[in-house]
Every structure is written in structure tokens, then in C-alpha cells.
UniProtKB/TrEMBL annotation:
Stored InterPro entries: Glyas_Bleomycin-R_OHBP_Dase (IPR029068), Glyas_Fos-R_dOase_dom (IPR004360), VOC_core (IPR037523)
Residue ranges annotated for the VOC domain, each copy included: 1-118
Organism of this sequence: Streptomyces nitrosporeus
UniProt name for this protein: VOC family protein
Source superkingdom: Bacteria
Amino acid sequence: MVHVLSSRILLRPRDPDASREFYGGALGLEVYREFGTGPERGTVYFLGGGFLEVSGRAEETATPTLRLWMQVADCAAAHGELAARGVPVLRPPVREPWGLIEMWIADPDGHRIVLTEVPADHPLRYRP
């Protein structure tokens, strides 16, 4: 069995500076560490229980199969903050049939990000 001690998502953006501005500025993710120099330097952000590394540069467009899932405390508040910062909201917060509140945004490369709120009455919060 593989004993995983830590993990991170590696993101190779087409425009590293725009991606760092999006994840660090617009989303306000805190920096875990940085490495290298120049525009393709690496920046690793805290992502709840994991990490998101933005480093290098990609020539290809975003893959439609990648989705980032981030749980937030309050989707409505996140919607207001992100919209005020100019982040394009693909879909505002909606309570889904499965009980979670979800909203969708995209990073500068078009990678889709779902921000999810687990309401206090949802079974994910408490199971006797």
C-alpha cells in the first residue's frame, strides 16, 4: 500500500502571472511556498487539506476534464467578494438536489472551479 503523506495539484498555466493574480489575488489563497525565479517560477498555495502548485507554462488550452473543488463556509459571501473583484462567475450559488450549495467560476485558462458550501443541516456535517 502507498502511504501518501501530502499531495498537491500541479497546474501549468498559459499565463503564469495571470494565474498567480487569480489564485493569490482574486481568490486570496495563502502561499505555502515559492521556488525558482522569473515568470515561470513556482508558487504553491494552501488549498484546504491539500495544495495547488502554479508553475511552469503550458502551450495547450485547459483540459475540460480537470475540475477543482473547493469547500467554502459561505457561497453567497464568496459570490459577492469574487464578483466585486471581477472574477467571472459562470453560475451563481444554487442549492443542488443533493443538498449542497454550489457556484462555478473559472481561472484565466478556463479551468472550472466549483465552490461548495455544506449547509449545517446536510448529512456531510453530522452523521450519528
